[in-house]
Every structure is written in C-alpha cells, then in structure tokens.
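PROTOCOL LOG
Step 1. Enter all chains and additional molecules of the complex.
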Amino acid sequence: MDHVVTAGHDVHAAAHHEEELGFWRKYVFSQDHKVIGIQYGVTALLFLFIGFSLMLMMRWQLAYPGQPLPSEGFILFPAAIGVITLLVGRFKPSLTTLVGVLFLGTAALVWYLVSDETLMPGGIMLPELYNSFGAMHGTIMVFLGVVPLAVGAFGNYIVPLQIGAPDMAFPKLNMASYWCYFAGGVIMLVSFFLPGGAANSGWTSYAPLSVTATVGQTYWLLGMVMLITSSLLGSVNFIVTIIQLRTNGLTFFRLPFFVWAQFVTSFLLLLAFPPLEAAGIMQLMDRLAGTSFFMPSGLVVSGQILDISGGGSPLLWQHLFWFLAHPEVYVLILPALGIVAEIIANNTRKPIWGYRALVYSVIFLGFMSFIVWAHHMFLTGMGTVISAFFQTTTMIISIPSVIILTALFLSLWGGSIRFNTPMLFALAFLPMFGIGGLTGLPLGLAPTNIHLHDTYYVIGHFHYVVAPGTIFALFAGIYYWFPKLTGRTMNETLGKIHFWGSFVCMNFIFMPMFIQGLAGVSRRLYDGGEQYAHAQGVLYLNEVMSVAAWVLAIFQVFFIINLFRSMKRGKETSDNPWSATTLEWATPTPPPHGNFTKIPEVYRSPYEYSVQGHSSDFTPQFEPEKA
Amino acid sequence: MSGTSVEEIKKHVRTYILVFVALMALTIVTVAVSYLHLSVGWAIAVALFIATIKGSLVAGFFMHLISEKKLIYATLILTFVFFIALMILPTSGYLDKVVK
Amino acid sequence: MIELLHRLGLSLDGSAHGPEIDSMLAIVHWLMLLLFVGWSAYFVYVLFKFRQKKNPTANYHGTKTRLSTYVEVGVAVVEVVLIVGYAVPLWSQRVDDFPPEEQSTVVRVVAEQFAWNTHYAGADGVFGKTDIKLVTGINPVGLDRSDPNAKDDIVTVNNLNLPVGKPVIIYLTSKDVIHSFALPLYRVKQDAIPGERIPIWFVPTKTTTQLKEEMAWYMSTDATLRGADLVVMQEYTNREGEVIAEKYQYLDSELLETLRAAGLRRIFVSQDQPTEISCAQLCGLGHFRMRGSLTIMTPEEYQAWLEEEASYLQTDDEG
Amino acid sequence: MQIPYTVSLRPDTGLFNAKLGVWLFLASEVMLFGALFSSYVFLRVAAPEWPHGYDLLNVPLALLNTIVLISSSVTMVMSWASLMMKDFVKYKRYMGLTILCGLIFLVVKAFEYGEKFAVGITPADSTFMAIYFTLTGLHGLHVVGGIIVNTYFWGPGSKMWKREPERFTNRVEVAGLYWHFVDLVWIFLFPVLYLL
Ligand code: HEA
Ligand code: HEA
Ligand code: CUA
Ligand SMILES: [Cu+2]
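Step 2. Run joint prediction.
Step 3. Record the structure below.
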C-alpha cells in the first residue's frame, strides 16, 4: 500500500473519513490532533533550525571577534539544505517541498541579516546584532522550538493515541492553540526586520534595559503574549483530555510514563505562564504608556535624566519572569524524560524499574519547581533567610531528578538491550542530563553561585540539559514514532551517523564552557571575553566550541535527508514495528481520523515486556487476558 | 449539576436571592468602614476580610463550589497554594533584603 | 580537588573568603564526580553485559537492589550538610556580618553604561552629598562640591584602588540599568541595581602584583599577541648581555620580536592587569567592554595614591 | 469514534469536559490576576508613601459598578437556573439583563476613565495610577470577553436549545462560571484599589 507518499499524503490518509472536508479544513485549519501535531512539529523543527542558524553566526563572532563574517557560508548552508530537501521531495506538491521552500526562506532571512549594513558594516557583526541574536536564539529555542515540539507536537500526536482517545477533548481549542503559536512565531520573525533589529535584552528581558530598548522588544512582548496564550489553551486541553478521555481500564497507574510527563508539564504551563503574561503586559505598559512598574526613581540613561514617575522595581520583573521561567525549564525536560522512558522500556524489552517511584517523583518535581525560582536571583541582594529557603528547595528538587535518573539507569539491568537509533539517543540522554543536572548543584548553592553566576558555567549547565539532553530525547522520539506517522522506518545507517556525530560535537561545544565558567568568563560577551585578563587562559576554547558547532550543523543534514527520504522510500513496516505494548501501536498506520477502529480496552500496566510464560516477549496493554 | 430536579433548583433560586442580599449588605459595609479611615493595617485587614467573605459567597453559591466534585477542589487547592507562594515570596524577599 | 579545579580553569583567588568558596566548590564537585563516575561505570558495564547479542531474553523483574535508595539518601545527606554546614553560614557571613566601617575602606561604586564610577569619601571619611541632577560627563556620580563633606571626595572612573589586608565595604548601585559588579579573582560578584543601594564586603589578601607573580607563565616567542596586555616577568638580556627587557616591561609585538631575535624560545610573562572589574550582567551594547581596572595595593601605595588624587583636587580649586 | 463526555458526565470524575476545562482556565486566570495583585503588594511595600485610593478615585461610581456587577452575577445564575427549569423565555430575559449589566458596567468605567483623562491623569503619573489602570483595564477586557460570549448564547448560540437542551444548559453554566469569576475579581479589586 502506498498511501504514505509524504506526510502530506499521510495526513490525507488520516483524514480520509471526512472526504467532504476541503484542503484547507483538512491540512491547514484542521482540528485533527494528528494533523495539528504534525503542524506543530514541522513549525517547531524549522524554528529550531533558525535558532541554530543564529547561533552558528554568533559562534563565528565568538571565535574570531571583529573579523568579517564569511556570509556566503552561512547563507549557503540553509540554502543547500533547502535544495536537497526539494530534490528529495522531487518538487511534487508535498510537505517535503513546503519545508524545502521554508529552508530557502531561512536562507533568505540569514541573507537579509548579514547584508544589513547598519548592523553588519563590512560583514562585521556589531554588538547590537550579537545581543539580538543571543536574545532571539534563547527565545526561539525555548518558546518556539523545544516547547512546541515536545508538548505541541509529541503531546498532540501521541497522548490521545496512548490513552485510547479519538482526539483531544477540545479540537477547536487545539487548532486555536496552534494558530496562536504560529502568530507568535510570525511576530518574533517580523521583529528581525524592524529598525534596530529584534529584541536584544536577552531572553530574560531584564528591566530597565528592556524597557529602554529598541522597538524589537515591544514585538518580543507581543509575541510572548501570543505564545503564552497558545500554551494556556494547549495545557487546558491536555489536562482535560488525559483526565476525561482515558479509555476503559486505563487507570492513572496504567498510564504510560510519557502521558504522566505531559500531564505534569501541562500543569506547569497552566499555572506558571500567567504571571509572565501579567509581567509582559506591565512591561508593555512601561514601554508604551510610560508607566514605571519596573523603573525606579532617578534613572540617568546616557547622561539624560529619564522623565518618568519612577517608584517601580527592576526586581519585580525578575520575580515574575523566573516564576515562569523555572517551571519552564522543567517543561523543557519532563516530556523528554517521558520519551526516554518509553524508548528504554521498549528497547530493554522489560518493564521500567520503579514505575511508581518515577510517577511520584515527576509529580513532586512539578510541584517543587514553582518554589525554587529565586535561585536565579541570589546576587540581587538577597538576605540570609530567603536565600536559605531557596537553596533548600533547590537542593530538594534535585532529589526527585536523581530518583528518576536512577530508576532509568536501573531499568537497564537485566534487559536485552537493542541498540537502534532511537535507543542510542535515549541512552545518551541519561549521562548528558546527568552532567547538566549535576552542574546545577554548585549553581544552586548561593556561595558557589557567587563565582559561577552569569558565567559560561551556567551556559554549559543548561545546554547540557537542553541540547544533548532534551534535543536528543526529541530526536529519539522522532526516530521512534516516525513509523506510526508514515508506516515506514527511518534509515538506521544515516541515523547512527547523525547520532555519533551529534554526540561527539555536543560535548565538544558544551564541555569547554565549564572551564571558561570556572575561570570566571561572563556570558553574553560580544567578543567572548577577549578584553579580560582572567579570560586569556581559556580564550582558545572559543574556536574549539565554534568549530564543533559548525560540524554539528553538518551532521544535522543527515537527519534532515533521512527524515524526508524515509517518508517516501523508508522500509515499510507493520502497525507495531517495535513490538511495543502501549496503545498508540494498536491503531492502523497512519491512524485514521478518530484513531481507533473500535474503542480499545486496557487490561494491564504499560510496560509488560518479557512476561514469563507469554508467547511473545511483549504483552500489549490492549491484549485481552485469555481465560 | 445537570440532572437536578426542578424542586431543587427552586431551592437554589431562594439561596441565590439571599446571597445577593448578603453581598449588597457587605458591599455597603466595606464602603462605610473605609470612611472611618482606620489605620492602614486595620483597614487592609477589614477590607480583605469582607472581600474574602463576599468572594467565598460568589464562589460557593453562584459557582456551586459548596457542592462541587473532588477533582475541582483538588485543582483549586493546588492553584491556591501557588497563588499564596506568588503573593508572599517575592515581597518577603524584599523585607529580608539587607538594608544597611 | 581544588588543584583539579584550578587545572580545569578555576581562577586564582586573593580574598579572605575566597578559599572558603573554593573549598565548597571542591566539595560539590567531588559529589558530582563521584556520582558521575559511579553511574557512568555502571552504565557502560550494563550496556555491555546486557546487549541483546549476549542476553537475548530480558529478565522481567530486573534488579531488586536497594543500592539506589542508599545512593539517593546519600546524596540527600550530603546536600543537607552542604546547606547547613557551608552554604547558609557562608552566605550570612557575606551579607550579614559586615565589619565596622571605621576599620574598613569604604567606597561607593556607581555603575553606568558602560563604566564603573568609584567615589571615595576622602580625608574626612564622610561622603559628600550627591544628586542625579548634577550628573555630567565630568561629574559622573553627581557629587555636590558645594557640600563641605564633598570638598575632599575623590571620584574615579574605571579605576578602583584598594589597600590589601583590610576589610573593604562597597556600596553598590547603578544609574541606568542592571549591571553586575564582578571581581573574579576575589570571588566577589553582586548585581548593581538602579534604585537600590547594596552593600558588599571582602578582605583582599593579595595585591595585584602578587597575583601577577603567581599567574606568570612561560610563553613561546612564536605566539601572536591578542587580547589583554602582557608584561615580561623577568629581565632579559641579549647575547651581548645588554638588557632588552626590564621586569614588568609592557610586551608589545616589537619587544616580542626583539626577544625572538635574541634567540629566546620561551619567555616568562604575565597579565599586565590581572585583577579587574568585569560586568557580569547584560547591560547593553557595551556590556562586553565594561571592564574596570582594579588595583589592590600595599597600604603605603594606597596612601600615596590618595594623596596624589587629593593634590589634583587642590589644583582644580585654584584653576 | 466520537469525543466522549461532551454532555454526559464521566462516571469516575462526575464531570463533563467543558466544566473541567473552564475551571482549569479559571485557575490560570487566578494566577494571572494573582501576579498583578502580587505586584501591587510588592510595589506598595517598597514605596515610601502610598496614596489612599479614595483620595484619587471616584468611589461612588465604583460602588455603583460593584452593585451592577454583583446583580449581573445573580441574573446570570438565574438564567442558568431558568434553563434547568426548562423555561427558555425566562432564560432569555435574565441573560439579556446580564448582558445589559455588563454594558452598564463598561459605560460607567468609561466615564471613570474619561474623568481621569480629562484632568490629565494617566497611567504614567504614579505607580498607583499605573496599577489602577492596568488592573481595571485588564478586568474590563475580561468583562468585554464575557459580554461577547453571553451575547452569543443569548442570540445565535441559543438555537442549540431546541436540538440539545442538555448541552446548551452546560454551555450556559460554563459561561456563567467565567462571568462569576470576573465578578469575583472585581470584588477584590474594588476594596484594594478604591478603599485602601
Ligand atoms: C531543561 C532545563 C533545565 C533543568 C532540568 C535544570 C535543572 C536544574 N537547574 Fe538549571 N537552568 C536552566 C535549565 C535547566 N536547569 C536554564 C535555561 C538556566 C539559565 C537561565 C538563564 O539565566 O538564562 C538555568 C540556570 C540555573 C541556575 C541559575 C544560575 C545562575 O544564573 O546563577 C541554577 C541555580 O540554582 C540552576 C539550578 C538547577 C538545578 C539544581 C537543577 C536540578 O533540577 C538538577 C537535578 C538533576 C540532577 C542532580 C542530576 C541527577 C543525575 C544523577 C545523580 C545521575 C548522574 C549519572 C550520570 C551522569 C551517568 N539552574
Ligand atoms: C532549548 C533551549 C536551547 C537549545 C536547544 C540551545 C542550543 C544551542 N545553544 Fe543555546 N541558549 C539558550 C537555549 C538553547 N540553546 C538560551 C536560553 C540561551 C541564553 C540566551 C541569553 O543569554 O539570553 C542560550 C545561549 C547560548 C550561548 C551563549 C551566548 C552568550 O552568552 O553570548 C551559546 C554559545 O555558544 C549557545 C549555543 C548553543 C548551541 C551551539 C546549541 C546547539 O546545541 C544547537 C543544536 C541545535 C540543533 C541540533 C537543531 C537541530 C534541528 C534541526 C536540524 C532542524 C531540522 C529541521 C527540519 C527537519 C524541518 N547558546
Ligand atoms: Cu554592565 Cu554588563
Ligand atoms: Cu532554575
């Protein structure tokens, strides 16, 4: 059967139940959670790519400060990928072709940025541009890349399938959530073309800097309001879906861990995002209506006394921002943990060790993540009592993480481990998250934070958790669930090249950051610290990291080719290629509109692999007990 | 709520009227109190106290919270905990700050 | 471990509380290393032992070990010790137990885009009035010279000088946006927040010169100069025995050339100004170049410097 | 497969989807306004002196609005009750009143704002004014949203009553929950901004 020519057609197949729906209702303003999931996925991957492209240029400036950027290279790279993708898609009207075009669009964006004489005279990146690239890299990666991919894409596509639901509880809301996200993304991209460029006050947008910044900041705020709204709609939908639409027999403790992760994540999104929305509105007021929420009295900016009422506080912004942003970082990691757990269970062919411990830990983690935020603010003049409180909560929150990782490690014991591409990424995730997490500890203790705060040690810390951590988990998820979307598997050889290449490069990028951090090199330095005596000893590392980053980019090409090539020419597979136990594999492939041919019944816990006396080495949740 | 008999609803309606009266009365009281110009501390205490009562009335009867499902309670309690954290922690950080 | 950390790039430190912070860093990194190495070893072993080829059928029950619980409890215990035993006391010492002002050097530091303005009370030890309305290019802190206390006040830009071996109290604030006042080699870092006046204190135990000596290293004469300025740390003579470079002489490419010409392969060099103020918080375009020079002097040098600055004030009044 | 529990109650939770949904949404709203109230506290504690709301704002108008909004809450719940009693005409009347009250509230608010702007008072004047305009403005937007929803259920949306009365009643209940929340927020706004 070749109904799976491209994801485009795949969607077509998925929607064949309602032929009456026209193209627009089917692919564009679709209310089918699977189509929306794919929309989220593609958009998010493209944003990851854009965020990455920005960073590739920044890394040039860091490695060779003040030297003209080899613009052609940075334009040609996305352009080449675009062309390759188009070739893979054979220019037929299909998702592949669309993405190819969008890659070319990225190239065009880069081209516009590097040829802007006001921000890049003679091809030399100015601090303005470096700062706005930095801010946008952070924003895009977090809010437009990883969260939409982990929650919007994986959550949307997989959760309803895994709980045996026909769709999300509120399909219209689901669509609205995607289009809010889309609008937010467009606003963010548009801001690159504004006078003064995009927002340039860091992804943290600390006031007063952000309040007095160029108009790009206003767009950043508007974009954030859209993105937050999107996440709110999404989270309401997820929680209701998981609580209300679980199929018969699927009790909470029979939920796949991935669903648990998404469940807790949704609560974080639901309750942590609104404060930033409020803060965003207040900063908009400060910028547009001249209020002084975040502006203290007596500001003198570049010799001019600001004429504002004053009486505000810069710390207020920080509190509201971090009240969101710390839970946010767990939003970045929990779905990743969920994916990893699924894949490890499946490829060790045995149940997850300590499933309940995992569940309780993740709930506890979610709860605690609301009361640790001020560990980002130790050096804002915090007193002993409060700092003691936040240090304690920060240390407490590391315990569930330890438990989760330990459980995953012990799950390997006694397994029969298959080293396929998804498993490789999932396994690599563990030590990488380990490094990232462990380096969180010295940051979490106020006295050691004094030396490390706002240095590259921090950058190293969180990139280990988000890049070789979350990004790897997401790659793993793509390789793992791809057959469910298309009925074909991705190419193993290309996959393994992609894995080993990325694995090595990631460590060469982020490990040196700890060294620079210990030396005291500040982050967000336009010249990578070249002017500072204390940085001299570790400056040479900048070049190492940059080269590694560029090589990493090359290795992503294998992934992109693999992804699109496999849609057409991948090896065809059955409905359950990995011999997995969870419900998503009970559907036809790709799942039709409404997902299940008949309402599934669940008989057992999610990871019943290698049950003694059972014929096969896996016992699906939906396989009836034989009397 | 669906599936409640007409009689019960009639009872409900009576309570709604009572609640309405109570709310009006309390509104008048707060305003009246504000004219006493109490010391800030007391003023805040009283005003918030009355507001809380009014709020609970609305939530309890108009929003049927007194007879709601456990799940809703759970959600709201969770929210309330974080709400309190949000209200208290930032400011307490301020008070604890070393002011020498 | 501290040695290891120094190998890993940890900068030298020259303040009384520095060693405490460093040893705490060491302990935490021990814990991290232990966990990481332990788990990694286990990890590799398991991946090898239970690979499908060698172990075709999985064991449903996996392991029954209690070990993990002990590990977790262990981690928890260490963390408690860290907080109660180190973090909280150390922090409270930083933010609560300030030394009495009369026994310390007291300085006001006012950050701005993109400079560090320092304000010394001068001979009378009393800070003169300041007012933002008076802020101008030549009066960065808005000092009101008409105020008697202000007469002898000393104001410098990007040039903080302090005596060694005596507590320093700095009142930190900012005129425009948030900056972060960081002295990496003295384990000092504090955000400078507009509208707030945040005190910090530390005791420098090493002078800039000492640190210069400590961090000196041998550099190949083939190296190209880049970044911050270097100085040669010993006298060099050519084959004829005449001095071509004095100690502490500024090493420019020219000198480097002559040294190479004199047949020297490696030369003993160090940073010209190893101690510095760096800005750790994104504060705009110039964030990366918001570097102030910090010089920790012997008390004598410091006195001398103060008097010199005071003398300039005199001449200003006459002129 | 159809999406279950859009009308009927899921046995183990005893809820239909939309009801859980709106409560979750309200939870997030609590955090939204919570953040603003928190900011109010934060700034007020830090401020050297803080004005009395009644010296700067028009308490009588606000009192009027309080009464209007509370009444609208009652009519709202009555409209739902009427549906429960299968009395569509009454429903129409009460819902109409609710919308009317909402509109009155906005008009009064408009006067209040106008009065301020007339004498040149803007959000930029002081932290107090900033927080006043932001909080009441955001609340005002919520009222507008509520009016739109209610008008829909009063007009076109009410056709559903014929086809699926059960479902329509649920919808009105959900809309009601939101509307009551808006009222509830005001109940706290009023004393905090005007009376303290
Ligand atoms: C996914 C994202 C993510 C995650 C999971 C974490 C997890 C943690 N983070 Fe991190 N953090 C960020 C993202 C994340 N962080 C970001 C983005 C920033 C910077 C924001 C900015 O300023 O721009 C930041 C900054 C940041 C700071 C502020 C630094 C500063 O600016 O001064 C602090 C301080 O306490 C901190 C602490 C922690 C702690 C204690 C954890 C703990 O949860 C970690 C717990 C995990 C463990 C303890 C690991 C346990 C594992 C093992 C024991 C097994 C080991 C085995 C092997 C290695 C094989 N983080
Ligand atoms: C989720 C968050 C996330 C992720 C994944 C990354 C990924 C990366 N980050 Fe980023 N980073 C941040 C969040 C993130 N970053 C934040 C919040 C900051 C702080 C900003 C600030 O200071 O305000 C920051 C800052 C930051 C800095 C410091 C800048 C400075 O302080 O001056 C650096 C420096 O090297 C850096 C580098 C990188 C690199 C090399 C990667 C690489 O790992 C990138 C790897 C990317 C990929 C592997 C993409 C793969 C995707 C594809 C191949 C797409 C395929 C597309 C289709 C199929 C359609 N990042
Ligand atoms: Cu000042 Cu960065
Ligand atoms: Cu954090």
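Step 4. Note key features.
Residues 127-162 of chain A form the longest helix (36 residues).
Confidence is low (pLDDT under 50) at residues 1-18 of chain A.
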